[in-house]
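Reply to dn_fold:

You asked what the input looked like. This is it:
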Amino acid sequence: MTKDTREPEIENRKARHDFVIGETYECGMVLRGSEVKSIRKGQISLAEGWVMARAAPPQLELHGVHVAEYPPAGKDRQHEPLRTRRLLAHKSEIKKLAFAMKAKGSSLVPLKVYFKNGVAKLLVGVAVGRKKADKRAAIREKEMKRDMDRDAGRRR
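and this is what came back:
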């Protein structure tokens, strides 16, 4: 059998539903070997994750993201599934994110994990929460668009 060369792209669909996403930034991730293997298998959950930006010593931290343990690594080489992970970005980007986070009602959410040239990357978005009515309106629009596309396909 040939090795599966497709790299997984894990998306945080819950964040796109719960928030209005503004700017996005690509960050590197500081990971252990067992975490990389687990992410390559697609065993990561971004749904409860959030990003903390500090300007004083400029740094980004990823909280609340669950990366499943990788059993072949053995017990002594395992990582903690919910540990805080450092994110790598340029100092100017970190300062922008820290400033954006101070705005009322905005937060930083992880949107997508993917591999770029063999290195794990995280797409971080500046997000503003949606109200329940906005969520319903977005679902209604999505359903209407799907119905129109379906009807257009039938007419051909």
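The first strand starts at residue 10 and ends at 11.
Hope that clears it up.
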